[in-house]
Specification:
Blueprint: H1 3-20, H2 22-42, H3 48-54, H4 58-83, H5 88-92, H6 96-119, H7 125-140, H8 142-147, H9 156-163, H10 167-176, H11 179-192, H12 198-227
Helix pairs in contact: 1-12, 2-4, 2-12, 4-6, 4-12, 7-10, 10-12, 11-12
């Protein structure tokens, strides 16, 4: 797919997933709401000054790790939904081989998330370097990530070699295709710090959680679009 075609696909098919699999969609929404509840309890949104001083506190960062787990876990059913041609039954099916392979992918993703959140923090040169590495590595490993939910083992090194000729598209599309929703996501969170009164804050935070419910399948769809850029993954998911 070219950029515009891939952009339309990612957003259109992610909305189709939300409509077909609402309960699965609610998993990252629930994780986002739990994080927001803890942040509200801790006073994160009381003011912008409070927002700046608390955004790296242990509790929000720990809950961010849980949210990242929910986001990455969602890749399993979204990829199966997309590869099956909007197959909701395939999305809900726990295929044994696919689960085993995806566990490897998920484990690596959560290791990188833990390093980024707890070890290589963004306010250090090493943290900045790790962030740049993640931006480059993730798109190049897209076939490794997208193949696992379909029961296809594509080693990370093989994925990187296959994606290297498509490096510019892979990295550029991975960043640009999510910008609209990511911008709304951050704007709603920051906006809650400017609004007086808990009702207004909660209105924005609930809207933000719903945006995350859409953003999550968009992220997975972006991985899928990048992964099939060199060619198909060659296997459709099995629906029990």
């Amino acid at each position: 797919m070219r950029f515009i075609e891939g952009f339309r696909f990612a957003h259109r098919e992610s909305l189709a997933f939300v409509a077909a699999c609402p309960l699965l969609t609610l998993i990252p929404v629930a994780a986002e709401m739990v994080q927001h509840a803890a942040e509200m309890q801790g006073g994160l949104y009381d003011s912008m000054a409070r927002f700046r001083t608390m955004e790296d506190d242990a509790l929000p960062v720990g809950l961010a790790f849980v949210k990242v787990f929910a986001l990455n876990l969602s890749t399993y059913w979204v990829i199966r939904f997309l590869a099956g041609g909007r197959d909701a039954r395939a999305a809900r099916t726990l295929d044994p081989r696919a689960i085993r392979l995806f566990a490897v992918v998920l484990g690596l993703q959560m290791l990188l998330a833990a390093l980024g959140l707890f070890v290589f923090t963004a306010d250090t040169p090493v943290g900045t370097g790790f962030f740049v590495f993640s931006l480059i590595f993730a798109p190049l490993a897209s076939r490794f990530v997208a193949g696992a939910p379909l029961g296809i083992w594509i080693a990370p090194v093989t994925s990187i070699r296959t994606m290297l000729p498509h490096f510019m598209f892979a990295v550029g599309f991975s960043m640009l295709a999510i910008l609209p929703l990511m911008g709304v996501h951050y704007a709603l969170g920051i906006g809650a710090a400017f609004i007086a009164g808990s009702l207004g804050k909660w209105a924005l935070l609930i809207a933000d959680a719903l945006i995350v419910g859409w953003l999550t399948p968009v992220l997975a769809a972006v991985v899928y679009v990048v992964a099939i850029r060199p060619g198909p993954l060659d296997r459709r998911p099995h629906a029990a």
